[in-house]
Each structure stands twice: as structure tokens, then as C-alpha cells.
Amino acid sequence: MKSSSLSSVLLILVTSACVDRINFDVPNGFAYGIVVEGFISDQPGPYTMKLNTGHDLTDKIERTFISAKSVTISDNLGNSELLTYQDRGVYQTSSDGIRGTAGRAYKLRIELFDGRVYESIPDTLRNSGIVDSVYYTFKKTGIQGTGESRYGFDIFFDASSSVRDDFYYLWKFTGTFQVDTNPEFDFNFPCSGDIDCRRCSICNIVPKCSGIRNVGTIPAEPIFKRIGPCECCTCWYNIFNEEPILSNNQLLEFGRYKGVKAGHIPVHQWIFQHKVYAEVNQMSLSRQSFAFWKAIKDQKDANNSLFQPITGKIPSNFIQLSGTTATIEGLFYAASISNKRILITRKDVPVGTFIFPTQDLPDPIPFSCLDLYPNSFTQKPLFWED
After folding, report:
1. Measured torsion, CA atoms of residues 55, 58, 61, 67, in degrees rounded to the nearest 10
2. Which residues of the chain have pLDDT under 50?
3. What are phi and psi of 279, to 5 degrees?
4. Per CATH, is 130-182+233-283+339-377 categorized as 1.20.120?
5. pLDDT at site 50
6. Secondary structure (3-state) at 185
7. Contacts with 88 (C-beta within 8 Å, 6 or more apart), sequence order
8. Domain map of the chain by residue range?
9. Predicted TM-score of the model (pTM)
10. Cα 319 to Cα 37, 85, 130, distances in angstroms
């Protein structure tokens, strides 16, 4: 069950979801540049900034995370906050620190240990408008290799603009679900010599995160004992929209957007083991940040066309103030956010079109929940209700 089910579900998610991350192609032979990801909003912090090196996509070399001398957010009224280093190029404001306010302009200043200093062009935070409603349609999406039909929920939203002459919006979709697994049944786990208890066997054949250890002394006769809580039995996962969703002046009337597709949630017994929250965030953009996301979308659209060459450079709103000249890519922007989420459960799957195997007790999922899907995390979301 493990290999076939996992591979099929991973294929579904890979084709229907992506990590909210941007890749930049950096030519070989250039001094390393940096890539910046982050924004400030009118929602409570903390806000997170990520710094890493650019890389050549064809070399398939992972990014190197950057440690900076300082990372600071400031506004046009003299307020500022020095961000705290968290881990692996991640910097964060405090939860009660600086917060975005409509009408103010914000910038990010980055000082590196080699003397380079970068600043973003100030970006004005504009009113967000409102996500009026989020809803779905259930549909058949294809046929699996086993001959069974595939189904899913397409997520749509209606939204309103707050100002009639300001139609720069970015929408982000996130689908969140929970899965419980049984890593203590993963007897095919490679032998681990990570010993952390007295008289434990040198070979633990179940994942350490399960809290179970082999305390037997004979290799062929394992004896399992719980020595701690399971840290990989329950996970939550996020599904994101495939590409940026941007306003395109196709307003029906009076500044309203209607029936815009936000994302897709595949129907699978693991994804709907509990329920799924579908959330749409509407983010106001300035003209310069809209141009950045528009360039990202255009390049993604070009990649999907046999006849459209990839042209143009993705704009950045950073300038270098000092130090050895090197590229900087990415965007720091300010956004006001309106959001709305809905709950989808098994009961929302139409009767007769898809049947969950509920006649018998479901088979346990015999591996770590951290390995089940991409974008996994073990901390319960604040909005999640059991």
C-alpha cells in the first residue's frame, strides 16, 4: 500500500499544488547574488523574510541560505524594527512589533557581512477590498491507472475592490488538511543507530519520531517500547494555487470580481481523513509589486506554451547602496489583506459519484506523516477546530 498509494497521491498533489516560492535563474560565472522573499501587511505579525543565494536551475544545485549582518523594516514615518534571525536564512519580526498601516510606505534594508547593503524601493500599503464569498464545484477530473475515476473540488471566489480606480490585486489560495499516520508500523524503516535510551538495541527498525524504540538485544527478536510521545503521527498540509492569480481589469461591474478560480483540492481518502479548510486571501498591491507578480505569471504562462518564447526580465524593487556589485532578485512589498475560508468535509462529496472505503476499518498509514505529502507541519493551525 505504501509505495503505490503514496506515489499516486504525490503525483496528484505535484500536479495540483506548488510551494509558494519563486525560482530565479542565475547565469554561471557571476558573483553570487541573493534572492529575497517577504512582505508586510495590516494583519498581525510576525512577518518573515527569507534570504538565500540565487542558483543556476540547470545545475539543480540547492540554494545556500544567507546570514545577514542586519535586516530591518521601516516606514516613512520613522518607525522601524530590526528582525531576529530564526534559522537557515529566515528573519522575523516580533509578534507585537511593527505592523502595516494603510497609507504608509515600507522598505526593507539588508546589510551583509561582506559590506554589501541593499534597500527596497518604498512600497505603499493600499486598502485590500473584501473577499465576499468562497465556494466550490465538485467535478470529475480524470481516470486513474487502476481505471477508477478521479474527483476533486474546484475552489472559486467573489471579491470586491475598495477603491474604484485601484485594481491591483493578488489572490492566494491555501487548502489545509490533517492526516493521522502510524509510523510505529513502518517495519521497513532503515536500521538506525541513534540510541537515546539505556539498553536499547543498536538497531531501531521503526522511525525514531514515533517515540518507539527497539529494546531487544537479539537482532532477530525486536522488542518495542514507547519511550516518548509520537512526533510524526499527526500532520497538517497545505495545498497552494499553481500560479499567481492577478486582477486583470475584467471587472463585471462596480468593482466586483465574480467566479474567479482559486485552486483545486483532489478527493482522496487521506486528504479527507478529517476535513479541508479552503482559504482565499486578497492582497492589495502597488503598481510596482503588481508588475513583479505579472512578470512571474507571464513567464509561467510562457513555459506552458509551445509557441511563446520566454522573454523579459522579472523586475526587482531593490537597489544596492554599497559593497561589491552583485545581483539581488525578489520583492519586498506591503499589502493589505482580506481573507475568507470555508470548510469542506466528506459529506460534501455527492452521493453516488464517489464512495469512500468506509465499510471496513481504514488501513493504517505505516510511515511518518512528515513523509506523506509536501508542505507538512506538525503544529496545529490556529484556526483548526477538532
Report:
1. 10
2. 1-30, 55-61, 306-312, 358-359
3. -125, 140
4. no
5. 93
6. helix
7. 65
8. 2-126+292-336, 130-182+233-283+339-377, 186-228
9. 0.79
10. 15, 22, 33
